[in-house]
Amino acid sequence: MxxxxxxxxxxxxxxxxxxxxxxxxxxxxxxxxxxSNTLKPIKSKNSRDAYYKVEGPVSGPxxxxxxxxxxxxxxxxxxxxVWIVAQQHVYWSGFxxxxxxxxxxxxxxxxxxxxxGHPHSYDRFGKEIFRFIVLALSIAAALGGLLFISxxxxxxxxxxxxxxxxxxxxxxxxxxxxxxxxxxxxxxYSWERMQVRLAKWLHVSLGVLVxxxxxxxxxxxxxxxxxxxxxxxVTANGSFLxxxxxxxxxxxxxxxxxxxxxxxxxxxxxxxxxxxxxRVMTAKSFEERQHYDWxxxxxxxxxxxxxxxxxxxxxxxxREIYAYRQQMGITLLGGLLAWLGxxxxxxxxxxxxxxxxxxxxxxxxxxxxxxxxxxxxxxxAILALCMMVAVTPHTITMTxxxxxxxxxxxxxxxxxxxxxxxxxxxxWLMIVVTLWSWILWKRCCVPDHMLRATRRDWFLVVAxxxxxxxxxxxxxxxxxxxxxxxxxxxxxxxxxxVSLGVLALIFxxxxxxxxxxxxxxxxxxxxxYAALIFLAFVVTWVMGLGGYRRSSVRLFWHIxxxxxxxxxxAFTHSIGFATNLISLNALLFWLGIGLIFWIARQTSKxxxxxxxxxxxxxxxxxxx
Length: 624
Fold this sequence. Notes:
Blueprint (H helix, E strand, L loop, with lengths): L1 H12 L32 E3 L6 E3 L20 H35 L7 H35 L1 H10 L1 H23 L7 H33 L14 H5 L4 H29 L4 H23 L1 H15 L1 H9 L3 H28 L3 H4 L3 H15 L9 H7 L13 H25 L10 H23 L5 H4 L3 H17 L19 H27 L4 E3 L3 E2 L10 H29 L11 H9 L1
Antiparallel strand pairs: 1-2, 3-4
Helix pairs in contact: 1-3, 2-3, 2-6, 2-8, 2-21, 3-4, 3-5, 3-21, 5-6, 6-8, 8-9, 8-10, 8-20, 10-11, 11-12, 12-14, 12-16, 12-20, 14-16, 16-17, 16-19, 17-19, 20-21
């Protein structure tokens, strides 16, 4: 028993990126010590899987059944403590995974020599941001250990039940954690020594391996939270049936993996972009300001690409939730958590407003306001219309008086915009408009005398109009088909968006015959950097709110329909309390990020002395 406990404790102290049990909802309390009679003897007989409906040998005890007296009251509402620690662990470990991905991308760009001039600028920037990723790894590991200790002390029954269910995975899991830490430090400390020819390619391969291990750990960690939402591989009373793959591969595992990995890349890119903005605002020379302005924009672009994948991942996750339990989907979109869904959509709309504002500040800094300034009002008007449609609720919880005043559960006019056909169309149109703003900014990086209206330019305009019309037509068509078929329209909408992105890359200025550009880096206004910082903060806030809603949909279940919550805290907090705590978590994370920025700046060797990064060179790297 002691050996088992030590192995579990070692697993917690070496907690990997994204321990999925970290997503503790405000209305779902983890458990404390169970009564001694809750664990039943294992009977060697076959039973039926609660999800896969296949027969399997009972290989574990049934889930514990608790009473209100089983929960400790010495710490007050203990779930708030666990919520804060868990969310911080998710933030920091997610930043490590997303940041490492960006570091490897920068190194690959540098070694491939894309663009003219000095490709080592990418390599130097990758090494520079790696310095505070290593610091963040230590913080994430410490938070993982603290989280596991909190779970063992406050809620040992749920923790021990989950460790018993996932026991066959623990040895592989622990080995991967140790390997990830060793590979990350090896990747960092071998950077300067492996800089030429074959050694550099081996170093890039090491970076790819680090990212693969990080993604595998993320997926294994996600198995915990997906199991708590949609348990599989167990009987109706929670007894393990011996098939580890069924426990891991639950109904929500795949969409949760896609959604969470993309969110971690987005978080890592936002942190790096804020670091670039911080270095710009503290630069001591115009050359340094140009350099970090350029690199901040690269990180921003990577983040926007990751953000574009979020609607598809989110709709896929919602589809699987509806397929698993329709009542869970109704609770999220039209029941107890409907208003939090409206808040989440509003925050997502603010993200697109911030992105477009940042791009139009870039356009203004590049001198494009004379050329394209008159179009900005149309961009913001379309974004505003789409956001109003997106935040329109379908059905919400209301009082009898409100129900009587409205004349039903839905408004006779606005209710038509509360369905997913309208909301998904609005989301994709916001992405199309954002891509068009990016194209206009890219064209501002081309000198006036080299910009000529060509057939390719008009073809791109027509393609965007047709693409937007196609998305709008698919949204209207969704009103005339069943809901289970309507969700499949996300695939052609995604295909339309990808096609527009490919066309935007093909018909760039270089493809039209432009070989030299002159991007005015370092000319972005302070409002642009403020928008970038706001964007990064809202991303972390949205991550916290999205995780809260996803976990809270379990309502009074710790593990959905397997372990019931009998604690005094088995209720859903008010919107104000939940959003305040989410804001506190986001603020704590960014205060910590600011601290490691300062530490990394103080421990950097020497002053800034990059090779010259000219405007022509930078533009070639971005657009060539």
